[in-house]
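User: Okay, second chain of the day. Same drill as before: sequence in, structure tokens out.
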Amino acid sequence: MFKSYIKIAWRNLRNNKWYSAINIIGLGVGLASFILVLLFLNYELSYDKWNPELEKIYKLGLEDKDGIAWNGATPEPLGRLVAGKYSNAEAATRMGGAGDYEILVAANDKKIYQKGITEVDSLFFKVFPYQLSSGNINTVLNAPNAAVITEAVKEKLFGHEDPIGKTIKLYGRLEVVVTGVMQSPDQPSALNMQVLFRSPYEKSNSHWQNFSYQTFIKVKKVVPSPELENAINNIYYNDQQKKDNLTYQQYLEKESKTLVFSEKLSALHNFPKSGGSNFKTVVVLLVLAFLLLVAGAVNFSNLSIAASIKRAKEVGVRKVLGGRRKQLFWQFMGESILSCSISLCIAALLVVALMPWFKQEFNIQFPLLGANIPYLALQVALCIVTVILLSGLYPSVFLSRFNTSQILKGNYSQGKSGLKLRNLLLVLQFTLSTFFVFAVIVISSQVHYMQTRDKGFSGSQIVRIEAQQATREEGFDRARATLLSIPGVELVSKTTLVPGDAEVDTILNDYTFNGQTIRMTTVKVSADYFKTIGTPVLKGRNFNDSYADQNTRSLILNETAAQLWGNQKVIGSFVGMSYCDSVKAQVVGITKDINVQDLANAVRPIAYSINNKACGYLSGGALLVKLSGNDLSQTISNIENSWKQIEPEVPVRYSFLDENFQRLFKTYFTIQKTISFFALIAILISAMGLFALTAYIIKERTKEIGIRKVLGAEVGDVVILIGKLFLQLIFIALLIAIPLSWLAATKWLQTFAYRIHLSWLMAAATILMIAVIVLVTIGTQAVKAAINNPVKSLRSE
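Assistant: Same drill. Structure tokens below.
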């Protein structure tokens, strides 16, 4: 019996090629979109799940009344304190590194730029369950100059040679000895660690004022975060914070306090307390992809109902010949299953074809399928079953319920209940389409605003040059003079906070003015920095070559920092800096706020100063070179040649500042393109469904239209007759979709510190676009029906 159902279903698909193609392709595209985003969600949720022991690891941080303190960094001895006094602690370690910065790594005659350079202590492998392919995991980090590299780095530097005992140079100056080779996990991790090394400055950096590290603790038994944090805070308070004979409970009741918080390593990538996450973006995309899939399934159902007019007599004949309702139901359900199966095959091909683009756009380094293929297969199977039920259940019931005598008389009407559900499905389709159109308008407007908003600096013709620490510090004056001698080079400066960098090397310090302490970002620059990037000094003066300026005795604040001090007259005032000597720094100027990164985050209060000679040591950053003239290629070529005099062992690495800043918006561009694609597909699906239903209505009312024309109805009257019902339904869809879309857009825009304001023009543009689509779709068929010869429609068989 089932075999005959499949044969009949295949014959029906073949006889209705265009209808079947529209149905199947629309559903296939919706399935492909949903599966791709589902793969992305599974990938994001697989972070740090490669070993069960990771569930016992927590990252510690500090927070005060202003939020996360010290950018998530902690004092260097915090881990040892907690491990020594917390009974549930198995081990603790601290680490600090370059993150996603590419650092020069050299061995023998090979030099590479590598991400994931991480300074660790000897207890690293007591906390993290990494495995070694070479070396003794219990002693591999005991030596004060030990280094462990991954197998990927080993291949780059040593090929097939044994690296154990070989020396590598980091940052162009720090020599360490390879003592082990580490296996990288086969699943993604929030921690990118490619080279682990012990620092020779480890002992001198071990003090409570050093906030250059992240602290991780491994517990013996997993406990709720509040219990863990309460125990650690009790220890931290009694050891480091206790004063004025306050008990721990009394300290907790104070308004101004600093507490330790914990973040589970397995949740660090998706649900961090400090730093950003892609998870909200993934969830939004998944919801939109699911809505697109629903639109495809609803369209499938509507088109099946519309096509049922051609099958009505077939149903009647089958019933006369003894066909039972159950048999008819499974026959039509079989057709839906076959169509959905073909759609799944098309979706699979689309997923395979789009996978490289998808991985590139969303910066995915690991295989999306991962190791959970059975789990993914189950998810897809549930999705397909849901789609089959959504798309095939109602049409199957609808067709099997046809009344035999009414069908054979030419009456195909199914009563008010069928009309209500059909109308409801149409309203749902256009509600989704309206939502997508409004989303595209809002996202496009926000991205355009982010691109065109005044960033506080000019990145035009500014080259960012990666330089080693020696060049940025004691060798800067020589490098600057060499570069300025090149024709076309106008200005040369340096900064530890480069606009447009994906990650920034900054530190927060406490600054005191008139008894008020404010934590601000500290940035080290050179005297010509603001001139180089075209940022004006609004009040006071710029830096110069004076002794005070060059020795961190002068500060320039940005607007946000000045406002935090209540817009007081800070120019000329002296400011105390934490961990500095008794000499205070004088505020000599206030500069315009600079959006260093994208506009999702507000500009931080910043204190700019020069050099590391007095206090607040900072490294990192880059050189900035302002070019002039039209022959930029020749100037860049001259810079490449002159760089051999500055760093003869390292080729110059440069990029343009404005291009770097644009790369920060890549995620938003990707979201914009993805949702625009979803919107286009949703509109096409809705238009196809509306087209089919219009044909269905016209077929049902063919004789009525003929009679009206005989009685004198004009073409316009017929068009209004047909379009009136649909326009009412579309109006209801707009009434539902616009408020919901407005609310969703408002929530999304609240994630940006700088954002557009929603306006009625956006809603009007959405309504106009939907109206045009509806009028064109309905109008073409309505006009065609209106100009048909009424004699043909009134002819009796």
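The mean pLDDT is 82.

User: Thanks, on to the next one.
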